[in-house]
Amino acid sequence: MKINIRLIYLYLFSAVGLIVSVIGSVRLVDLGLKVIVFGGADKYEYYPTRVEDETQNQEEQKLFQEREVTRQRQRDLSASLAMIVVGFPLYLYHWKTIQKEN
User: Fold this and answer.
1) What does the angle CA 52 – CA 53 – CA 57 come to, to the nearest 5 degrees?
2) Distance CA 91, CA 35 (A)
3) Residues in Cβ contact with 88 at an 8 Å cutoff, skipping those fewer than 6 apart
């Protein structure tokens, strides 16, 4: 039985590309569900730190929270798209090479 190192390499990188693409897709669907269906899933509540300025403090915290949620969604979207953009071509190239050799 002859072990073909090239074939092992192709299958390994094809699997890695597929796994990275799947993880990126799952994260993208997760982000979409949080934004569209479960709007409160990524909202956090903060306790006021100053009792005398409680109203102003709550408004500041609400604005900060909204900006932070937007920034976090942008980071998640960027990471998910990067995984798909890198993983899918990696999978596709190696899988097509395997198909040509067989």
Assistant:
1) 145
2) 29
3) 17, 21
Give the tokens for residue 32: 């979409």
Structure tokens at 13: 């990188």
Alpha-carbon distances, residue 44 vs 7, 14, 47, 79, 83 (angstroms): 49, 39, 10, 22, 27
Mean pLDDT, 10 residues at a time, the chain of 102 residues? 84 95 93 82 63 68 84 89 92 93 82
Is there a contact between 68 and 45 (Cβ–Cβ < 8 Å)?
no
Alpha helix positions (H), 1-102: 5-36, 54-101
CA 24, chain centre distance (Å): 5
Q: Using CA atoms of 49, 52, 53, 57 in order, give the dihedral in degrees to the nearest 10.
A: 20
- Residues 24-53: b if buried by 16+ CB within 10 A, e if exposed: beebbeebeebeeeeeeeeeeeeeeeeeee
